[in-house]
Amino acid sequence: MSDMSLATPRAYRRPSTRRIQVLALLTALVAGLILLTLSCGRGCLAPGDVFAALTGAPGADASFVVSELRLPRAVLGLVAGLSFGLGGVAFQVMLRNPLASPDIIGISASAGAAAVFAIVILSVDGWLVSLIAVVAGLGVALLIWTLSARRGAAGARLILIGIGISAMLDSITSYVLLEAPAWDRAEALRWLTGSLNGAQLTQAIPVAGALLIFGGLLAFTARDLEALRLGDDTAQALGVRADGTRLRVTLAAVGLVAIATAATGPIAFVAFLSGPIAARLLPGAKGLLLGAALVGAFLVIAGDFVGQFLLPARLPVGVVTGAVGAPFLLYLIIRANKNGGTL
Amino acid sequence: MMRAERPHRFAGFAILLGLLVLTVGLSLTVGARAVPWDEVWAGLLGQIDSIGAAAVAVRVPRTALAVLAGGALGLAGAVMQGISRNPLADPGILGVNAGAALFVVIGIAWFDISGAQNFLWLGIAGAGLTAVFVYLVGATGQGGATPLKLTLAGTATSVAVSAFIIAVVLPRNDIAGSVQSWQVGGVGGARFDTLLPAVPFAVVGLLLSLASARVLNALALGEELATGLGQSVALGRLMAAAGAVVLCGTATALCGPIGFVGLVVPHLCRMIAGVDYKLVLPLSTLAGASMLGLSDVLGRVVARPNELDVGIVTAFVGAPFFIWTVRNNRMRGL
């Protein structure tokens, strides 16, 4: 008997327990971070004061700081982080390549360019910006799929074409931002890296809505997506329609990433990092989507807190995640095998 | 690739020289402001009595800068493609220009360094370190330096470097505006007194790069064969790389990181002249100068009365070419 248990590595013995533990731990971490960002800033408040301010108890001193400044920031960080993590991992699983994340292949860049164009040139705001960003994201996804559709779309070709398209879109974004007279340049720089500065609860509403709709769509598609990882033929044999699944996943993932980008700017590398980190924490593939979403929220909220209070200067969250994400990308490149590696 | 006949080669030189002359002519006469011919002449002769003539007089150093930087980037791209045997190599894509920019920005922000000469040294140091770093990352691990790995290493490095540049610049409102517009890549603010110190650097880079044609030709046959032909591959590569780095650093210090010139130009030159680097290198220099000059002219025309920075134009023109190269080349690792 003891031989048997030696032959089975511990982590694989009861994957469901480990999975639930990891997911619970991640949820607790995110909740703890939110509590931390609500109570601590330049100075720290007692938990009781925070609670009083949130419930709107009359005469609470901290009411403005907590509910007008810190709460919108935390909420926007949470929903945007969840969206980036979920959208990113959906792409990575669908294309079976950790490098095929929306911020590398140009989906984030297209949403960012469209959002900047809509805000600065067309002078629209709110829902319309999100809608324009999603339409642009879907258009660019279609363009990249079409351009790389030779000998399979999942390979290096798709990533390289995405990088080329990103460069083009980024040049549009820089142009619009440089031309815009009303925009403070420092503010533009902040937006370009992704920032939660000046967050308002109204900004979080479209992101939360997208999270419900597209996140739900992904949750319903998760099983088919799982089958797709085994290859199109196997998926077909399991009764999964490969093209239909890909269409739904693309729609959902682009929707998530584009709407979050329209609200916060392209926060560097959150979509790219969340999936691989979650995959290393979780045994097997189940729960990967939820895990990646939680990791995304953790990265955004923690990155924002570090950038605001733990560094000598106040920096937007995108600078922090960019500085963390780039070394990880370099590590993946060094480790990558010839097909780019799987998640 | 077509085999180049001898008359064909001279035709290539003649066409590109003609294009360069045309570019210079356009760059001096076309701009956000329409200037009549007599005022163009007056401006060229240094008589700046009318506004039109003054505008033309400003275009002279600007044109010189575009030609210098464009030639440097085109040649550097050709050398990099030769050294790494990678059709996607470009100082912008590989992050080398971004590295040069980071050093210049740090110099401005932290050490109060000013003066064109110092920027040049900083730019060259930054370009050199980044080039070594990106190449090491791209070449480590399975499969060696494939185009995909090198490009990704360059992209990752660019993102990290950009994050760092923003981290340096954001707390400093006094320099944010100038750094931001410099970082997009522009030749608009050119003056002869900042341009002249760069000329010796450009010449050194040019000579080192042009001298490496033999080594690059040998490398194209494969490393073993090159060694067998009696080429000192390691030394030759080092010299060629040093030349390319000096060129990139100089160009970036002068007008900010400009991408895609070094990618597009060598490919076009190979279409004209075949694969011989003795031809490709000088042709790339000419064509790079023309491309940057024409991009600058285009940037002045399309957004009248405003101007588009030349880095935006080259990215917009060059990125489709990059995609086309990815689609059409049969590359290692693709």
UniProtKB/TrEMBL annotation, chain A:
Cellular component terms per the entry's GO annotation: plasma membrane
Domain of life the protein comes from: Bacteria
Subcellular location: Cell membrane
Principal subcellular localization: membrane
Name of this protein: Iron complex transport system permease protein
Record keyword Phosphoprotein present: no
Keyword hit for Transmembrane: yes
Family statement: Belongs to the binding-protein-dependent transport system permease family. FecCD subfamily.
GO biological process: siderophore-iron import into cell
Pfam families in the record: FecCD
Record lineage: Bacteria, Pseudomonadati, Pseudomonadota, Alphaproteobacteria, Rhodobacterales
Gene Ontology molecular-function annotations: transmembrane transporter activity
Automatic annotation (TrEMBL), chain B:
Bilayer topology term: Multi-pass membrane protein
GO MF term list: transmembrane transporter activity
Compartments, as annotated in UniProt: Cell membrane
Keywords: Cell membrane, Membrane, Transmembrane, Transmembrane helix, Transport
Keyword match Transmembrane helix: yes
One Pfam family here: FecCD
GO BP field: siderophore-iron import into cell
GO CC term, one of those recorded: plasma membrane
Keyword flag Ribosomal protein: no
Transmembrane regions listed in the UniProt entry: 41-58, 65-83, 89-111, 118-138, 150-170, 198-220, 240-265, 277-298, 310-326
Highest taxon above the source species: Bacteria
Family stated for the protein in its record: Belongs to the binding-protein-dependent transport system permease family. FecCD subfamily.
Protein name from the UniProt record: Iron complex transport system permease protein
